[in-house]
Write a structure and sequence with these properties.
heterotrimer, A: alpha/beta, Rossmann fold, 10 strands, 23% strand, B: mainly alpha, MetI-like fold, 0% strand, binds adenosine-5'-diphosphate, binds magnesium ion
Amino acid sequence: MRDEESVLEVRGLGHRYGDATSGHHAIGSLDFAVRSGEFVSIVGPSGSGKTTLLRIVTGLMRPGQGSVEVAGRPVSGGVPEDVAVVFQDYSRSLFAWMSVRRNVAFPLRNARCSRDERTAESLAAVGLTDFAGRYPWQLSGGMQQRVAIARALAYRPKLLLMDEPFASVDAQTRADLEDLALQVHERFGTTILFVTHDIDESVYLSDRVLVLSSPPARLLADVQVDLPRPRDQLATRQLPEFVRLRAEVAGLLLRQRDPRDETGPAVGSAEEMPAWA
Amino acid sequence: MGVAASRLGGLDGVRLARPVVRTAQGLVGGIAFCALWQLLADRHFVLAVYFPTATTTLRSSFFLLGHRDFWVAIRDTLHAMLEGLAISILIAVPAGVAVGRSDHVYRITRTVIELLRPISAVALAPLAILVFKTGIKPTIFLVVWTSVWPILVNTIYGMRDLDPVAYDTARSFGFGRLAILFRVALPNAASYVVTGVRIAISIALAVAIAGEIVAGGGQGIGGWIGKESASGSLVPVYAAAVIVGAIGYLINRLLELVEQRALHWHESLRTEHGR
Amino acid sequence: MTHRVAGIALRSLESLILVVVLVGLWQWYTAAHHPLYFTPPGDIWRTIREHWLSGQPSKLRTAVEPSLRRVLLGWLIAAVVGVAVGVAIGATRWLAPYVDPLVHFLRSLPPPAILPVFLVLFGIGDRMKIIFIAFGIVWPILLNTIRGVRSVPVLQLETGRVFGVGPLRRLFQIVLPAAAPQIFAGLRIALSLALVLMVISEMVAASGGIGFEILQGQAAFDFPGMWAGIVVVGVVGLLLNGVLSLVEGRVLGWHRGARAAAQ
Ligand SMILES: Nc1ncnc2c1ncn2[C@@H]1O[C@H](COP(=O)(O)OP(=O)(O)O)[C@@H](O)[C@H]1O
Ligand SMILES: [Mg+2]
């Protein structure tokens, strides 16, 4: 799986919070790679270290074991240049004291190219051109998340990480944002690593779905999704292949909850349970 | 928090209680400050009687604790401060409730409050001497003048900040106006009153001492400091400041505890409204 | 339209009526009973007009100007020092348990209690007053800045790091704006404390300034002069607070909006 085109390579990654006796062993051992231009989703029970993984990839924290390479360069200590993130908590990752335009332009100070142009382009890509002068708190949740996406786009990352980005918006908005993510992927050719606990969403969006076990997390399966693109909220979701893939991923996760399974306790908490449960 | 805390906390495998660790760390900070002070004072940039070392000051503070005069001064200052505060609460809370209850009264009184509030207490000291002559009374007046405003303004705000849903709920249960006042509005305002009192107290000690300096006729800490500094050495002034600071520190900390108790249920909802 | 105008007029009338009534009562009482220490508002106003606003030299120049200079310089120094040190302490998390009690102790030190120290070390001139004011009021600014910086959401700091934003821009574009509401609260408390300290330092040691004029008026049985000084202190406080509120409104407009939106 390792080839020249890998944007992200994760090798032997493990992480434990706290000490060996009382701590939480979030990630057991993970190995995977993401090729340039791929849309890869990660699903897994809550507590399986998905956020931890993303924080390690962005260089915000160091892993207990193993290594991470972004665009061929090891992530060690510093924050790699080519990575952008969209957090779940949009209301806090946007700056309330900056207009939408300035929020989007925020990462661009050091970039050589014309800032205004790129900001405008990113805002247009998420359909917020008319709201550039507003403040984030004047927008709805879905629109705020669009701003966060525009900000990440403006940065032109080689790798875009999204941590359950649509978990706290209503269903209609969520569908719109999913299609926005697909559009962005198509138009900018951005490589996307997308964390979610919604199985439908992971299958609908991705080229591959990585299924994590309950903690300490390891890779249960690397499911190839060969659904045709462009995808469509209604048509794609009705394809027999979609239904089969969804069942496959769900089955992998459900088996995690089998009491005879030695990997650990039940998946997540009630409110974190995915829609299919 | 952080590295040092956990290292201290795990000393010799013994888990020390958190407050003990905290106190120790605070002491380390205090000692570092005193060491710096000692170093600076030892260089003799200024005369030792004007800028004594930390050890001289602390030794002198210790001796002060045995001085009857000093304790009398402390007692007088605290007396002025507490009596002033009590009077302020008796004035400001009922007034705040009355003003805050009605939009009409609020609008009518707002300008007067906004005009009077910025008059700083010490500016009234000469007037206070004229009206209340000597002794403790002028100082009490100044404390009252300072303390009334934060308590009043916070009480008004607390009364006006009542959640309309709470009000409607009470009404839907058939509560009358008086019942709503006592069972909904006042409990809601209580925490704001506490905040107002805390802000008032944090300035009351300073104003009491200021009042004693300009209008106290030699009474209280202000008077005591005046007498001592006239003798040419500032060591007693530094020594007294340490003790007064410690008293102020204890009062403030105690109040923060009380306030936390009173406010725990809507910590995130409040803002402080001026002094 | 006429309704709205009438409403506004009625409300401003409402907000002024008590002021007018109180001043009127005061005027009537003092004119009728001639209490010794209480001057009729008319006389106070005449004194202000003749001695403060005009005259050679006017007290606007000899008293208000030096007082304002002391307050503003002291306050500015305290603001710069308090915010700078506050950011440094607030951003260094492990430092908290070591310095917090010390800062709280220093904040609890009533500034008037150490006024003699400043008198001896810095003389009785402007320098002493400015340093005294700055030292006395720096603590609320420092404490509020520390608190504000500590409460900046981690996610916002991390957002800055992920997008490769350097420490200086993180400070000016994330930390300071996020802490600004708390910092302004400290600045406001400091301003009113500065007025108290300005007046007391001018009463204890000065040959000019509003505090000096008030004390002078009392000592010389010039009660209209004393009252004029008190009124001027109030007006100065009102103006300074007003300006600060204006600045705050501009800088923190986003904060009020965000709070309103969150409710
Ligand atoms: N800073 C931390 N300190 C200690 N434990 C943590 C910390 N962050 C996360 N954890 C623990 O690690 C587990 C995995 O966290 P996370 O990566 O957020 O999982 P996920 O995103 O998959 O839900 C959580 O259940 C939490 O208990
Ligand atoms: Mg997570």
